[in-house]
Amino acid sequence: MFLIKANFTMKNENKVQYIFGIADNALILGQRLSELCGHGPNLETDIAMTNMALDLLGQTRSYYQYAAQLTEGEKTEDDIAFLRTERQYKNVLLVEQPNRHFGYVITRQFFYDVFHLLFLRELENSTDSTLAAIAKKGIKEVSYHQRFSSDWMKRLGDGTKESHEKVQEAVDDLWRFTDELFHMTADDTLAVEHHIGIDVKTLKDRYYQIVSEILEEATLKVPETKWFQKGGKQGIHSEHMGYLLSDLQYMQRTYPNMKW
Amino acid sequence: MSEKEIKNLEEIFDQRIARDEKIEPKDWMPEKYRKTHIRQISQHAHSEIVGMLPEGNWISRAPSMRRKVALLAKVQDEAGHGLYLYSACETLGISRDELYDQLHTGKAKYSSIFNYPTITWADIGAIGWLVDGAAIINQVPLCSTSYGPYARAMVRVCKEESFHQRQGYEIMMTLAKGTPEQKAMAQDALDRWWWPALMMLGPTDAESVHTEQSMKWKLKRKTNDELRQQFIDQTVPQADLIGLTIPDANLKWNEETNHYDFGEIDWDEFWQVVKGHGPCNKERLSARVNAWEEGKWVRDAAMAYAKKEEDKKLKKAI
What we know:
The structure holds two protein chains of two kinds.
Chain A: H1 2-7, H2 12-34, H3 43-70, H4 77-82, H5 93-96, H6 102-123, H7 129-157, H8 161-174, H9 186-193, H10 204-217, H11 240-254
Chain B: H1 3-18, H2 31-56, H3 65-90, H4 96-104, H5 122-139, H6 148-176, H7 180-199, H8 211-216, H9 224-241, E1 252-254, E2 259-261, H10 267-277, H11 281-294, H12 296-317
Antiparallel strand pairs in B: 1-2
Protein name (chain B): AAA family ATPase
Pfam families (chain B): PaaA_PaaC
GO molecular function (chain B): phenylacetyl-CoA 1,2-epoxidase activity
């Protein structure tokens, strides 16, 4: 009886990896958004984007604290956030893309929000009650994010000629990073088998349907390319990631083993 | 309006102020009162949003997740303060675009303290503790100032600032009881921020051009020198408590006056920074101007879209 049960329990180390696959997206996107704090196009937008950064970093903390618990005292929330090597971060390539201009910021956000909301709505049903609770809280926040980014897609797409061109440029450029959202890793598959995680492949059709509808409403073209990039989920990141991590990890690397 | 009529109105106005009544946007007010308030409130609003920059400088490098989230929330609070102070200022008949223009062209001032660089994490603690500490001393009396919208905005600002001040002090305390490296980092930050924080309370009373009129309008309740003394008296024991040393060899408790005596402030440095030649004046201003200019196409898009939506609604209604 005990043995059978053991087979059906996901090992902590795999669960931790599964959590990284979710939470690292929130950390890295939160980090990117917080780079903009104080530099927004107007105060209201600045405040709204900082709100989203705060939500994402708050979610990150909940996930990492849970992951730290699963390491049984071996790691803390901050070890996880700041002291991994680049190859150990499992976020998708999309979220690490730089803030080239506001059109990029909004498009990156929009592409991620649509996925994020679909994902959390499934994760809410996880048999892992901690993950389900984090998802439940996150749904409220991410619904707002999606509304914010969709509204801005429409404003920029259907605003002026200049804004239309700029946001279309971002859509065309960032589109290649969307497919990776639906790739399954070995830890994802294990998590699905244990009714803890989500089969992200099943979200794909709905995702592109929603994204296309909004792009259309924003008078933007849905890119036709079939060439996509991947690697983040395996820890193979873009060249931007190292710089982001240098910033993120600076204090912990320069002054190791201290309390802040 | 005849001169006599204006004189009458001014008398009634002065009596209202004397009775501690609030002046509201639609009330008659002397032109000088309006102008002085635009100057002070906008200067305050600008300080909030320029103040986001030195602290924002450390969000991406904060040393722990807890500190990162707290700092991000703090800087966001400053944006919020900016927002309601601009709104209060707009009730005096000036637009936000005009106010920004005054900031961007250097016509309007903001607090000089934000022209100093934040070069270590401890600077974030020092700013919270000293800069927000000095700001509170400056601002608490404004909660009962005569202009209603400003007074109401200040009530909220002060609540949040006192939270920020405690947060900053707590960062310093953590560093001071940390490793020798951390303690040195805290001391170094105190050494660099102490004197600029004292300057933040404004020139000496002898040099202050606005004090007299501002006292009359309750835009100011205490003079700069009184506020500075209050700040020093309050802060020195806080430094002692966490084992940091105030960088002033002449600092000494005076039994007779019941205050601390302190050393000479370098007013040349103060005026250099005020006149635009501090270490980061150029960086701060160009960061604000860049954000504004680079955001133009975004704001234009939002306006154009809103107009299209409005037109659609109108068409439907017809």
